[in-house]
Model the fold of this input.
Amino acid sequence: MSEKDFYGLIAQELNLRAIQVANTVELLDDGNTVPFIARYRKERTGKMDEEQIRAVEERIKYLRMLEERKTTILHSISEQGKLTPELESKIRETMKMQELEDLYLPYRPKKRTRATIAKEKGLEPLAEIILKQDVNSGNILDFAAKFVDAEKEVNSPEEALAGARDIIAEAISDDAEVRKAVRERTRYAGILVSKAKDPDAQSDYEMYYDYAEPVKKIPPHRILAINRAEREKILKVSIEVMEEEMFEEIRRRHLKNPKSIFANEIEAALTDSYKRLIAPSIEREVRSELSEVSDEHAIGIFATNLKNLLLQPPVKGKVIMGIDPGYRTGCKVAVIDETGKYLEGETIFPHPPQNQVFQSKAVLRGMADKYGVQIIAIGNGTASRETEALTADLIKEIKEGDPARDLMYIIVNEAGASVYSASKVAKEEFPDLEASLRGNISIARRLMDPLAELVKIDPKHIGVGLYQHDVNQKNLDGALTNVVESAVNAVGV
Done:
């Protein structure tokens, strides 16, 4: 397919005009970012939004990769002298990478397998005789005896037949139509089953110790949980199918003459092919597909969470006190003025083991009165609830003496504050402060201007989801970077 054909195909898929797709691809190829194109090149794209532009970007990338792979495969098969017009047509017409790889499988250079060893022993002609299935009478051992050759380590007719079956099994496994049929049945009729390696062991995954759910129904979060438990060697996971249905599918394609004297050899070969070659391969593929879909779903949720954090309304024109809660090491306190400038910092110890509640309240009240603090931002990490109770009590006491006092508290997401505090950016901003104090300045500032503060942190460290470390990190990086880029372009920093 040509680039022009791609544009028409994408336009049809996304309900756009071909000229919109062509212009968008040209802008992307020139290095323009998606938010820039959406915002400043509306006249070229026909007012496409970011989501539509990213869909075009993703699809053109896939189609170009597919076309490049087709070229490589056609060249490889042609060099082998095995490229037929029919095969070339199938390769050029397919629009799915998986189908393309299935077509290439019989021609892909292989490692030394049981089938290649059997071919080296001169047993391929015997396999071809068996595959023809055109002999209905006689003794199969008589056919096989002709291929006995001690020099090639074929010592008996039975060994010759075993080698021929290995060749046939690999041929069946390489059949693109068989693989497609087995793959579809596994997707739509397979059952994902998980079992505990140690049923008596305690873990967070006990609900999956004896678990089964249809492949087509299992939700993304369960796939991620099961995958994690498998990596931690807590679960054994497999996909179960009705094997007899799979065998029947293969028989329809390869058992041409049930009355042939070779029918039992074909039956044995197809059974071996399915169990040893096809089923393990297709199970890996389907599980990989499940993981990819789950990753995509999770990354979409993570991206939405990050977007919501970045685009929280800023609290402008307020003096803010930030508190990074803690137990043994204390609560770090910092005050910033209406512009975000750091005014003063302190460490208090209101919680166990020190329990300096009275002294801590005095410090907080002194700083609040000194700078006219209007909002206290409390990090949502360790000791957050206890610090919230302390702060609520303090505000109540202050307002009892001064009912008109403008003072309140807010719980703030502190994810990434510790990463920021040790970063080069933080050291340059506050070279004379300890890392612990830089963190609570960040907590105060992310209430004042969430976007301006959070863009200083690698988005992966902002803690946007439960399974963010389980998904494809490259894809996660790309999605979160796109969100930051989009937010900055929309709002500005």
In short: Residues 320-448 form a domain with the Nucleotidyltransferase; domain 5 fold (CATH 3.30.420.140). The mean pLDDT is 95. The radius of gyration is 33 Å. The chain is about 60% helix and 10% strand.
